[in-house]
Amino acid sequence: INKESDSRGALIVLEGLDRCGKTTQCSRLLSHLEELGHSVESWRFPDRNTGVGQMISSYLANKSHLDDHAIHLLFSANRWEKRSLMESKLRSKTTLIVDRYSFSGVAFSSAKGLDLEWCKAPEKGLLAPDLVLYLDISPEKAAERGGYGDERYEQLEFQKKVAQSYRTLCDSTWKIIDATRPVEDVEKQLKQIVMECVLTCQKGKPLSQLWE
Ligand code: FDM
Asked: Is 104's C-beta closer than 6 angstroms to any atom of ligand 1?
């Protein structure tokens, strides 16, 4: 029985190491859904446009130093400042394709050695994605793709640790996609999984919260 009020947009998150192809796939999914006439937006975290986002951006560019816990909480705050907009978009039936979310937050900070549960705590109460698409690639292969920039985390040894942390976060809402396949193959696979999720949410599915 479809309660009209439960019909909503889907919250779809793409995660993965640097250079796994997330950003390309996000934009392809966006145009695909738009072409099909869906209401859809593409978001990314960190959102560097807010005040908090600017602090994060300067940290990532190595232009400022922050304690590991402090930057972790800023990344989290950057999601909290978008939470209510996120909820209202979803309730007004707009699907959100999100490039990185809380899983990046926990994976990157715990890769530095911060306690996993401590890292998850500030994320509790944010909206839980309906689907997490993990673009799986080994840190070595990702590094071979080149184009690691000069940002703080773009180093092979650190990416190896991040890959391990991601592995501990994976649950039943995750779909692991082989990101070493040609871009078009990955795209095709993602479109299929995403459409299924969008339709489920359209029919009606309650929103839930992360890690509660
Ligand atoms: N990152 C991203 C974190 O460390 N924590 C977070 O919560 C998020 C969302 O920021 F290295 C890291 C991951 C990446 C960097 O991401 C910037 P983009 O996708 O390159 O902008």
From this structure: yes
Residues 109-128 have pLDDT tens digits of 999 999 999 999 999 999 99
- Taking the C-alpha atoms of residue 178 and residue 159, their distance in angstroms, rounded to an integer, is 17
- Which residue type is seen at 31? S
User: Which of 52, 57, 74, 104 is the pocket-test mutation for ligand 1 (most atoms within 8 Å of CB)?
Assistant: 104
Closest atom, ligand 1, to C-alpha of 22:
19
Q: What is the mean pLDDT of residues 197-209?
A: 97
Q: What is the pTM of this model?
A: 0.96
CATH of domain 4-202: 3.40.50.300
Encode 45-76: b = buried (16+ Cβ within 10 Å), e = exposed.
bbeeeeebbebbbebbeeeeeeeeeebbbbbb
